[in-house]
Amino acid sequence: MAFALQVLMNALSLGSLYALAALGIGLLFGVLKLINFAHGDFITVGAYALIVPSAATQATLLLGDFHPLILIPCIVAVVVILALISEFLVFRPLRNASPATLMIGSFALGFIIQNILIMIYGGRPKAVGIWSDLSLGVELMEGVEVPKLQLIIIGVTLVLMVVLVLFLTKTKYGIHMRAAAEDFRMARMLGIEANRVIMLAVAISGMLAAAVSMLFVVQTGILDFRMGVSLMLFAFIATVIGGMGSLVGSVVGGFAVGAVSILLQTFLPSEMRVFRDVFVFAIVIFILLVRPQGLVMSRASRERV
Amino acid sequence: MLEVKDLEVRYGRLTALRGVNLSIKEGEIACIVGPNGAGKSTTLLAISSVLTPTAGSISFAGRQINGTRPEDVARLGISQVPEGRHIFTSLSVEENLRVGTATRSDKEEMKRDYDRVIETFPILGERRRQSAGKLSGGEQQMLAIGRALMTNPRFMTIDEPSLGLAPKIVDRVYEVLIDLREKRGLTLLIVEQSSERALKAADTLYVLRNGTIQLTGNAADLQDGKAVHKAYFGFSEDHEGEVMI
């Protein structure tokens, strides 16, 4: 029982990170039909913003030293501004290009961001310890101790999802965004400003990336210019198996990928654990074979005749 | 109110419209009829600035609107009910109607327009919380018209309102359209494939074939249908037996 709960908490917290990253990707895919492979690098930049820009091997905290109430908005601002700059410089000029071109554009953007990070901070991973007391355990019940951070990750994810749902269903701009995600041309014919909706989606996607940055870096304690890439890979897989274009699907996919990873990590024989991701990807391929439309079918693709 | 001059639209190398002229007066119901592929929807999409014309001009209330963005055209008071209705199926009925008010900030009048739409189509009121994708074809058409009305348009274009609907529902849709002109003074441009119903509703009729207007006329003068038939098919009715499919 205690063991099962421990595994469940691990799965939920990893799934939360994937779900948040997948939501950021899914949101942008909805309105722009862009699979933003630079999303992972947005996450990386959010984490690097914690330290003083220098190539020194020892990281010196910059934003990371501030009180959370200042630190969090600053990191969010950095990532959102980066996302908006990307929209202006990369995605907007490619607005009428095919989705494949857009995707390749986002790859290029990702590489540029990574290399700028190497230029400024150097290529070596750096240790950062912020909020290290969060990794202390909390006793959930007798014999079950989980790091405080896991609870925070799960909690933050839940709150962000609730806020996002409220925004999308209760506010004018949220409804516009859902309309634009389903039928962009029709939305414009009704007077919805295309660029405004897209910028809003980009900004929200950036906020979600910033949240992942902070949670992830507190968890790992390490900065690496590729740290967002693997996260992006899993989050992308989550959106694919969840069903492209469905936000619910992104969340379901995120938690599914998280759960599968943790289960394999826990139950694979120890000598096979290094190949964990091989099994994860095999399961993904299997899901795509039996359910190519994804676990949750997006309503935009299900048309009534 | 709407002047279309020598409009030409191309899809790549294919020329869809080659010099279309329309002149629609305020408060009238104009109808474009024509066979499949004549360029009817293309004309409406060009008016809404979704398509960019390669030549010619479109002006609305004295202002040139070709070359602007679709959202600007909507803001000027032109609303389109497109072919296939394009309602937002993942949104509720009420949300669909709310999207129609994107350009507006006049809260009280928005509420009044909403009530009017519900009064015209009571079924939309009953289903307002339901997902719009669950509506029947006829209800979706009503929602698409209602949504267009929520933009508070001065000019509305409707692409094949009778497509895929039972005759009884088509009657209801036309009743509403004619009523909109009578009660609100709305100017309408309706596109249809069959000329019969369009002739009954319209003041002015345009027959479009092969991307050009073949015939323009006062609908009342064209009631016997012979001239329309010739313009529509490119040959007169006497040959009907030989060539009709």
> What's the CATH architecture of chain B?
3-Layer(aba) Sandwich
Q: Give the strand content of chain A.
A: under 5%
| Amino-to-carboxy terminus distance of chain B | 39 Å
Ranges of chain A where pLDDT stays below 50 over 5 or more residues in a row are none
Could you describe the largest sheet of chain A, including whether it forms a barrel? 2 strands, antiparallel
- Element order, helices and strands of chain A? HHHHEEEHHHHEHHH
CATH class of chain B, please? Alpha Beta
Q: What is the CA-based Rg of chain A, rounded?
A: 19 Å
* Count, helices of chain A: 11
Structural class of chain B: alpha/beta
Shape of chain A: globular
Oligomer: heterodimer
Greatest interface (CB-CB under 8 A), with counts per chain:
A-B, 23 and 30 residues
Structural write-up:
The complex is a heterodimer of chains A (305) and B (245). Chain A is built from eleven helices and four strands. Chain A is mainly α. Chain A has one domain (10-225). In chain A, strands 1-4 form a two-stranded antiparallel ribbon. The longest helix of chain A has 31 residues, at 2-32. Chain A is globular. The mean pLDDT of chain A is 90. Chain B has 245 residues and is α/β, with parallel strands linked by helices. Chain B has a single domain, classed as P-loop containing nucleotide triphosphate hydrolases (Rossmann fold), CATH 3.40.50.300. Helix content of chain B is 37%, strand content 25%. In chain B, strands 6-7-8-3-9-10 form a six-stranded mixed beta sheet, sandwiched between helices. In chain B, helix 7 links the parallel strand 7 (155-159) and strand 8 (187-192). Chain A binds chain B through residues 172, 175-176, 178-179, 182-183, 185-194, 298-300, 302-304, and chain B through 48, 50, 69-71, 73-75, 79-80, 82, 86, 88-91, 95-96, 98-100, 102-103, 131, 133-134, 140, 147-148, 151.
Question: SSE layout and pairings?
Answer:
The complex is a heterodimer of chains A (305) and B (245).
Chain A: H1 2-32, H2 39-48, H3 68-91, H4 99-121, E1 126-127, E2 137-141, E3 144-147, H5 148-170, H6 172-182, H7 184-189, H8 194-220, E4 222-223, H9 227-242, H10 247-267, H11 276-290
Antiparallel strand pairs in A: 1-4, 2-3
Helix pairs in contact in A: 1-5, 1-6, 1-8, 1-9, 1-10, 2-3, 2-4, 2-8, 2-9, 3-8, 5-6, 5-8, 6-8, 9-10, 10-11
Chain B: E1 2-11, E2 14-24, E3 29-33, H1 40-47, E4 55-60, E5 63-64, H2 70-75, E6 78-81, H3 93-99, H4 107-120, H5 122-126, H6 137-150, E7 155-159, H7 167-184, E8 187-192, H8 195-201, E9 204-209, E10 212-218, H9 226-233, H10 240-243
Parallel strand pairs in B: 3-8, 3-9, 6-7, 7-8
Antiparallel strand pairs in B: 1-2, 1-4, 4-5, 9-10
Helix pairs in contact in B: 3-6, 4-6
